[in-house]
Every structure is written in C-alpha cells, then in structure tokens.
Design brief:
The structure holds 2 protein chains of 2 kinds. Chain A is α+β, with helices and mostly antiparallel strands. Chain A has 29 helices and 21 strands. Chain A folds into 4 domains: about 60 residues, no CATH class; about 210 residues, no CATH class; about 300 residues, no CATH class; about 200 residues, no CATH class. In chain A, strands 13, 14, 15, 16, 17, 18 and 19 form a 7-stranded mixed sheet that branches. By secondary structure, chain B is α+β, with helices and mostly antiparallel strands. Chain B has one domain: Winged helix-like DNA-binding domain superfamily/Winged helix DNA-binding domain (Arc Repressor Mutant, subunit A, Orthogonal Bundle).
Chain lengths: ~900, ~110
C-alpha cells in the first residue's frame, strides 16, 4: 500500500485499528476473567495494561507516516474556515491579490509571447539568418544587409552545412478575381516551407522545377487573404489569380498566422520566376535569407563555410563582391522597439504586485497580532512552534493561491483587450496567450507573494513568554509589531510614489511633445499609397507621364487644393537614408554623415505646409539633364554648411547615382520620426530632391513606393473614394490604397507615449488606492490596539484635538519616510525611463511636487478617519473594560 | 513480583520480528508470548506494541491479514515479509555481537584486559 492509499483509506484503517485494539482488550479481559476476576475488574485491568486508548491510536497513526499530509489537509481546512469567518478581510485580501497577480500575469503573458517564446517552427533553434556583410557597412544605422539573388543561389548550391532558403519582399497589383487591389507579395524559393518545416494546410509548396524562369506561374495564398477572397473555400486551389497582368494558378494555402519577418503576406510566388534585372545584379542585395543547420552542424562551422563561399565569390566577381562576405546568426523574431516598453510595463505591474503584497501582509499581521492569544493557547496545548509556523504559512499560501487563481481568471479575460489596445500592431500578437509557462509563472508569483506576506505573521508565532501572552489583554501590541506595520506602510507609500512620479513624468512628456511644432501643417492632408498600372510600370518610358496624369486628375477633384507625389512620408514607416559630403573627396560610406532623402513633385511644400526659409522649392524647370538640385532643411544646412549661406553650395551623394547636387533652397525641419522620437533620432537632417530628376534606372522601383499627398479644403478622408475612382486608369488597374490623414499619422507617432501614460496612470491610481487602504487598515488597527492608552490619556485631560494629532503624527512619520524613499526611487525610475521612452527629458521638480502633495493629502485623509474615531473614545467605558 | 527491566532502545522491533517469525500471529498473542518467553523479566508495554507493529508494517517488514481465530473471532494476523525475514537475520546477528562484546567487557578483571 503506498502512502496515497494510506491517506485515502484513512477511515478504513482507523476502523481496523479500532477492531484490532478491541480484540486485544477482549482477549486480555477474558483471560483475566478466567483467572477469577470480575468482568468489570478484568476490563479495567486490561485497559490499564494497554494504556490511554487515544494515545495508542495517535501513536499508531503517527507510525503510518502520513501525518504531515493530514496536518496539511487540516491546515487548509482551517485556513478556509478562518477566511470564511472573516469575509471582509478575505474579500479585500483576495481582490488586492487578484488585481496584483492578474495585472502581472497579463504583462508576463505578453512578454512571454512576444519576447521569450522561440519562433513557432519545429526545432527553431536550428534556424539561422544569413546576412551580407562588408567592412564599410554601418549595421547600427541601416540594419543588417540582405543578399544578392545570384549570391544566394551560389550559397544555396554550395553550402554543405546549411539548407538555405530565400524570400523577397515585394508588392503587386491584383486584378482578378477581385477589384484591383495592391497586395503584399513574398517571392520565395521553393524550399522555404520545407526549410522552416512548415506544412501547408491545403495544397502543396512550390516544386524545385517551378522555381526558375519560364516555369508555369504558380501561387500560394496567405491564409488571411484566402479567407478574405475565397471565404476559406478549398475550391480556391486550381483557380487562377491575375497579378501584375500575369495569370497564376493557386497550388497551396499557407498556414494561419504564418509570417516570417513582420506581417503576414497576401500571396507567395516562386522567386526564381521573377525576371527583374536587379535580381541578376550582384551589386544589389534584396534577398532575405534564412537557413536551417543540418544535423550535427554547429553555428560556427556554418559561418566558416559561408565565409569561404563569400571569399570565393569576392575573388570571382571583383567589381561587385570585393570585401563582401556573409554573416550567420541565430534567427530571431523581429519585434522592433517593443521590448523596452514591455519590460517597463512589466516592471510597473511588479510594483503594483509588491504593493498588493505589502497590503495583505499588513492586514495579515494585524490579524496575527489579534490572534496572538489563540496561537499561544495552541502552543500551551502542545503545538510545536514549527507546527504553528506551518499553519500560518499554509493560511497565507491558501490566500495567495486563491488570489492567484482569481488573478489568472482576470488575466484570461484581460489579455485580448490588452493586445487589442496596444498602439499599432503588437508583433507576434498571435503568440500571446495563456500557456504552461504563464500558468507556472502565475502559480510561482502567487506562492511567492503568499510566502512574502505570510512570513512576517508566521515568525510572530509564539515561542516563548507563553504565559505572559496568555495573561496579557488582547489589546496590547508589542514594539516589533508596530515597527513591522510601519515598514509595510512606508514601503507601500514609496512604491506608490514611484508609480505616481513615473505617470506624471510620462504625462508631462506627452504634453510637451504633443505641443511641439511638427514642422508642417497637419490639418486637411490626406496621404495614400498609389500603385500605377502594371502595364505602365513595365514600360519605363510611360512612367513619368502616368504620374503627371495622376497629379492632374487628382487636382480636378473638387475639394483638392494641392497635390504632390512623394516617396517617404513624415511620421509613417519608411525612410531613405543617404550619405552626403560637402566636397568631391567623398570618404567611405560608413564615414559619411547621413540625411533623410525625400523625392517629391513641386507642389509638395504647399501640400504639407512646410516653411520655405531661403531660396526656392522645385519647379517644372528641374528635369533630367538640368542641374541636379536639392532643397535642404535647417538641420542639414546647419551641419553641412555651418555659418554659411547654403544656397548655391554643392553636396556629393554617391548613393544617389548622380550629382553633385546644388542646394537651391532651405526649408524648415520636419519631425520625420514622429513628434516624440525625432529629437533623439540618429539621422535628423533632411533634404528633398525632384522626382523629375530621378534617373530612369530607379524609376520603376520608386514608382512602386510612391504616395499621393493631397491638401484639401474639406474633411480629407471624405475625398478618398472619389480620388480612388478618379485615378483608376483606363484599364481600371491603378490602385490608391492605405489612406491616412497627416493628423492620424502624427497622433499615431504618439500612440506609444499615450498608451504608457494611460497604463501608468491606471497603475499609479491603483497603487494610490491600495496604499490608502493599507494606511487606513494599519492605522485603524493600531488605534484599536491603543484604545486603552488613549482612554487613559483622555481621562488625564487630553483633548480630542490632542488625540487626533497623536494619531496623525504617527501616520505622518510613516508617510514622510515613505515619501523620502519614494523620491529617491522615483529619480532612479525617471533616469531609467529616459533610456526607454522616446521624447523623455529631465522634467525638474514639478512632477514630484504634484505627486508628493497628492500622495500626502490622500494618505492623511485616509488616516483622518481612524484618528477621529480615536478622538471619540469614551474614557470611562475604556477604563471599565478589561 | 520481581522488578522488571525496561527494554533497551530498539530491541522491541527485534523481539516482535522474532515472535512473528514463528508463524502468523495476532497482536495479543505477540504480547503474551513475549511475556511468557521472557519469563516476565522483560516488561513489554502493551501501549507501544501496536504502534511498533504498524511501523514495521509500514516499512514493509510485516504484512497482515484478517483471519478467523480458533474461537471464531476475526483478528489481524501478522506475517513476516521476505524483507522482514532478512531484517530479522541481520538484526539478530548484530544483537549477538553486541551482547557478546558487552559480556566481554563486563567480565573484565579489575586489572584491565588480560
């Protein structure tokens, strides 16, 4: 019989023991009777010989070795009964804990899903990314380099340590089966799904023979796209889809939520079928390369092999590949700048949880002190100190776990709203849900907090001075208890102040950055991406006139004041960073200062309302063949030509492919990186160049990136449909898509800050509330303990005002100590946040003044209620008690 | 009644095992047999007999069944397990070595070891 059975069959075993002992007594008694004793005397002697029946039974039960389990069950039972007997306490403690654990669990779930979980592919630790690398490349600014398509093919063919797959980010205009639409296209090598070990839920992946030019056009649909256009019907397989005038047959559907780097793609086509010229050029590096280490291969040997291949390529193709090699790095999910925000929020909720623990601890301690007599009584009846400590800890563990269970329920309900509420798209949002690790975390923090707040009361379990404790009235508090209470109140106040200060500093930052001048007139501007007709894009000679046509058509729409075409738009994703130099002796690329380049048509300045400071903006006279011109902003003028007149000066920019450029005008700086982030951005300088001077070779690529910017004199969004109609083109295959107003973009650039302010305000409010409850509870309890003392004081002539002051002085001491600690911690927190939050600047004392006075006022009013109650103590009634 | 010795620590288990080794037996009979065999020299507190039996059962040295006695009553009969038998042998051997050693020491002459 194992101990489980012994435990569950406890009743049966007790019955058997009873029977066994009874048999023994009967036998003994009957023997004594046969020796001539009277039955009563015989039974008496038999019982005497066996010893105290209860003690024998207890000893037998002890011998079974399941004692601690019985005790444990008993403790839990007792703990639940204590909670039930004190519903007010139970409700407050459980709610406090549920809030703390719930909030922390929500944040941990997000951190776990976004930052901790590996990529959702089998054996994802074997997946690597392959980057291009040159000595002169500045990865800190530009990010990692991709790989030229031909280089990728060579690596794929030659590598023995890796299975290599490639993908190309692209876009295309879809014209069948739906209305013309611009779709997100990934061109992929045929082995991408097998390298990732992803199975398609419907259809098949591309075949190797389909991954070369001239093969039959085939397509895999993204899951969401499939749902959207084919309502998830399996009949989509085998139908045809027209993309950029090419008819593709659908052969497969990608799994739901399948995404590698960023958003889920709409459609996939074989990379090898793309005949674009730039793919045949080893000098351009568009291919994203992922690979899987073959069994038993270490990352370092893969790196060594690819370096060798890179070396070989560098020798074979000197003009494009000299100094170029490959880097192999573990493949990581792309999460952008989200981690800092997530860690910040996890830190903040942990503070809330700590406050909740301190709160429950002080409540429990108060109860432990009033239960002193009960505990002493148990000790006097023979309970060991360890047993009492265990009982106290069991009680707090029960409390912690029930609070934690409630908290997990809260978290379960709260995760989806939190993710939805996240500003913009939370990366890897589909990975965010409760799982084993989160549950483990929740159980762990529940138990930990139970242990934290249960420890202090448990250690108060009586060890010595039993008699004294039993004799003392219930209303005396020892010095240690009072000190411990003060510690809890002080730490609660300090923690609450940290959160308050953080919220105030964030709020101030938000106020400051929203009042900043964006450098342009945000009102009544509509920006939409535009895809020209695929037929036009295929013929470079038609592109310029097509854009001219778009501009003229848009200008004719009623409500449009000015229209321009532009590649990168302020405060939206996307930028083009170009190195510049003020003389012909341009140094290596990683030594050049960089600026943001924007290609525009002449009316751009009017559309955006950017200030012209000197010189002129572009006109129709700037075209291919005329002097290449640019217009710079204040920042670039300052850094390139400090103290000089920039008009007429020249700048050299090798990456542009032509030049040198003459500066013809200076305009105001525009906060390209968003209202908050621009001040701290690495590259702030800007210049504009006329789209009309863009070389023919870039024309097609640029045309895939352009947006139409419109200034209106009506509500801008109301024009979108008529604009869309107007630019559809003769073949009905030109698409205006993705409309935003400049106001939306500016608001969006502050979304993260606004989100943080809101959450921190909630946390701080919660912390303030919790610490007020804590202060109130502790003071009410302490005063209750001091009623006899107060009674005596009043009998001796103290006025109610004296008594109120007596109480307030006690709480003021704790508050001041907490505030001092809180200010120190708040300064630290502010310092930390300056690294994590865009647009934070030293704020000076005002947030502290505001929050400290708020905190002191709230804390004092929380202490005033018990103080007043104390002042109403009837001295006679008190003195008669006890 | 002659003065009775208390059992040395840990010998109760050995005695119980030995008595049970003679054949399945119930608790009362164990107490009786211990008393008879030791000719009333050894005082076996009946109160500690049952906890000891349960402890030995718990350690897997004994196993027990409910069986009819001669008088037709149901009683709990204890038997040695294989483990219990092994335990009895090792304990008996070490007991003999111990008593032998104690005996030798007690027989020492005043002058020291000869």
């Amino acid at each position: 019989m194992n101990w489980w059975q012994r435990l569950w069959r406890r009743k049966q075993m007790d019955q058997q023991l009873e029977k066994e002992l009874l048999y023994h007594l009967e036998q003994h008694a009957s023997e004594l009777i046969s020796l001539g004793h009277s039955p009563a005397e015989a039974w008496r002697q038999a019982r005497l010989a066996l010893g105290g029946p209860e003690q024998v039974r207890e000893n037998c039960r002890d011998a079974r070795g399941t004692r601690w389990l019985h005790d444990f069950a008993q403790d839990i039972h007792f703990a639940l009964r204590m909670l039930g007997k004190n519903p007010g306490f139970a409700v407050v403690a459980l709610l406090t804990l549920a809030l703390g654990v719930g909030a922390t669990t929500v944040m941990f779930t997000v951190v776990n899903g976004v930052l901790l979980k590996p990529l959702p592919f089998p054996q994802s630790d074997k997946l690597v990314a392959v980057h291009g690398h040159t000595q002169t490349w500045n990865a800190a600014i530009y990010g990692q380099q991709n790989v030229a398509y031909l280089d990728f093919l060579d690596c794929q063919r030659d590598a023995r340590t890796l299975d290599i797959a490639g993908a190309l980010f692209n876009g295309a205009t879809l014209s069948e089966p739906a209305q013309p639409e611009y779709v997100d296209l990934r061109e992929i090598s045929s082995n991408l799904f097998s390298v990732l070990r992803v199975n398609l839920p419907q259809g098949r992946a591309f075949l190797p023979e389909e991954d070369r030019s001239g093969a039959a056009p085939v397509m895999i649909l993204g899951y969401s796209f499939w749902q959207r256009h084919f309502a998830g019907s399996p009949e989509a397989l085998g139908t045809s889809v027209v993309l950029d005038q090419k008819r593709y047959t659908v052969v497969g559907i990608a799994p739901a939520n399948f995404s590698l780097f960023g958003a889920e793609a709409d459609v996939y086509t074989p990379l090898g079928q793309d005949g674009a010229n730039y793919l045949q050029n080893r000098g351009t590096h568009p291919t994203t390369v992922v690979a899987r280490l073959r069994p038993g291969v270490a990352l370092s040997s893969a790196q060594a092999e690819l370096a060798l291949i890179g070396n070989h390529l560098a020798q074979t193709y000197k003009d494009t590949n000299a100094g170029r090699t490959f880097l192999v790095a573990p493949l990581r999910p792309e999460v952008g700048d989200v981690p800092s925000t997530l860690w910040l929020l996890l830190g903040a909720v942990s503070l809330v949880l700590l406050i909740a623990c301190a709160n429950v601890a002080s409540l429990l301690l108060a109860r432990a002190v009033s239960r002193q007599r009960e505990l002493s009584m148990r000790a006097a009846l023979g309970a060991s100190r360890g047993r009492l400590v265990r009982q106290c800890l069991t009680e707090s563990a029960v409390l912690g776990l029930s609070g934690g269970a409630l908290g997990v329920l809260l978290a379960y309900a709260g995760i989806a709203p939190f993710v939805a509420f996240w500003p913009g798209d939370l990366p890897r949002a589909q990975e965010v849900h409760l799982d084993g690790r989160v549950m483990l975390f929740a159980v762990f923090i529940s138990l930990l907090s139970g242990f934290l707040f249960g420890l202090a009361p448990a250690l108060r379990a009586p060890a010595r001075g039993l008699e004294q404790a039993l004799r003392a009235g219930s209303r005396t508090t020892t010095g240690t208890a009072r000190r411990l209470h003060s510690v809890f109140v002080i730490s609660e106040i300090a923690l609450a102040l940290v959160l308050l200060v953080a919220a105030a500093v964030l709020g101030r930052t938000l106020l400051r950055v929203s009042s900043l001048d964006p450098g342009l007139n945000l009102r009544n501007v509509l920006i939409s991406r535009m895809a020209l007709s695929p037929a036009v894009l295929a013929d470079t000679g038609k592109i310029r006139s097509a854009w001219q046509d778009v501009i003229e058509r848009v200008r004719r729409v009623p409500g449009v004041q000015a229209v321009a075409v532009v590649d990168t738009v302020p405060m939206r994703e996307g930028n083009n960073q170009i190195g510049y130099w003020p003389s012909a002796g341009v140094p290596a690329a990683n030594q050049q200062p960089t600026a943001l380049a924007t290609s525009v048509t002449p009316d751009y300045l009017n559309v955006m309302g950017i200030v012209l400071r000197q010189g002129r903006f572009f006109s129709d006279r700037d075209h291919i063949g005329s002097q290449p011109v640019i217009v710079v902003d204040d920042v670039l003028a300052q850094s390139a030509f400090p103290g000089q007149v920039p008009i007429g000066k020249l700048l050299w920019m090798p990456q542009m492919g032509y030049g040198p450029f003459m500066v013809v005008g200076v305009v105001g700086h525009v906060r390209h990186w968003g209202l908050a982030a621009d001040d701290q951005a690495q590259v702030r300088a800007q210049f504009y160049y006329p789209f009309s001077q863009l070389p023919e070779t870039y024309l097609r690529r640029w045309s895939e990136l352009m947006s139409v910017a419109v200034r209106t004199n009506v509500e801008p969004r109301s024009l979108f449909q008529s604009l869309r109609q107007e630019v559809r083109g003769e073949a009905n295959d030109q698409v205006l898509y993705n409309p935003h107003t400049m106001e939306q973009l500016a608001q969006g650039s502050l979304a993260r800050q606004r989100f943080l302010v809101l959450l921190f305000s909630i946390f701080a409010g919660l912390a303030l509330l919790l610490s007020c409850v804590g202060i109130y509870g502790v003071l009410a309890y302490l005063i209750n303990q001091r009623v006899p003392e107060i009674g005596v004081r009043m009998a001796l002539g103290a006025s109610p005002a004296n008594v109120i002051w007596l109480v307030l002085r006690q709480s003021l001491g704790m508050i001041v100590a907490g505030v001092v600690l809180g200010i120190c911690a708040g300064l630290g927190a502010e310092h930390l946040m300056r690294h994590l939050v865009d647009g934070m600047q030293p704020t000076g004392p005002s947030p502290y003044l505001i929050t400290v006075s708020l905190l002191i006022a709230t804390a004092l009013s929380a202490s005033f209620v018990p103080a007043r109650r104390a002042s109403r103590v009837d001295p006679m009634a008190v003195l008669r008690q006890d | 009644m002659a003065a009775k010795s208390d059992l040395p620590q840990g010998t109760l288990d050995l005695l119980i095992l030995k008595v049970i080794a003679l054949g399945p037996v119930h608790g009362y009979a164990i107490a009786q047999r211990l008393q008879q065999v030791s000719r009333d020299v050894v005082q076996v507190p009946q109160g500690s007999l049952y906890p000891a039996l349960h402890r030995l059962e718990n350690r897997g040295l004994l196993t027990a069944d409910w069986k009819q006695t001669d008088t037709g009553r149901e009683a709990k009969f204890y038997r040695l397990t294989r483990k219990g038998r092994a335990q009895l042998e090792t304990e008996a051997v070490s007991w003999e070595r111990l008593t032998e050693a104690v005996g030798l020491i007690l027989k020492m002459s005043e002058g020291g070891v000869q």
